């Protein structure tokens, strides 16, 4: 149901004012800064979207996803036993199985995300987009990052 989208209103002047206020906020210091930075790492999708990706490239990425912060730094922060990982590993659909298998073998539960639907341009027929999405999910992707048609967005054709 997309009826709600036509009712969305953004108060642009209010958004701009709020963005300007955010710029003036003081920065976080000390232990709080480290905590915020560690939290930010857990929200990152570690991504490789290179046309020449190989299984070994994806394996290295998965290792980095499981160990995004150097162990000595985590020990210094007394965070070495907290299991800090990135939020997901993101790859093209053809590399999803490589990532899923590598992460499973490493004994971690980091989700695999995949770009689909004609990434990066979105200029792919709908049937091809849906097939690509289905395949990525079949290969084990738990998140799909979809490129929507910019033409449809720019012309307000949300349906």
| CATH H-level superfamily of the domain at 45-155 | Aldolase class I
Name the quaternary structure: single chain
What is the radius of gyration computed over CA atoms, rounded to a whole number of angstroms? 20 Å
Structural class: alpha/beta
Strand content: 5-15%
Q: Reading side by side through the largest sheet, how are the strands ordered?
A: 1-2-3-4
Q: Helices and strands, in N-to-C order?
A: HHEHHEHEHEH
CATH class of the domain at 45-155: Alpha Beta
Total strand segments:
4
Tell me the major beta sheet: 4 strands, parallel
Helix content: 40-55%
Q: Summarize this, please?
A:
With 159 residues, the chain is of the alpha/beta class. Helices cover 45% and strands 10% of the residues.
Layout: helices, strands, pairs:
Elements: H1 12-24, H2 30-41, E1 45-47, H3 55-66, H4 71-76, E2 88-91, H5 96-105, E3 112-116, H6 126-138, E4 143-146, H7 150-154
Parallel strand pairs: 1-2, 2-3, 3-4
Helix pairs in contact: 3-5
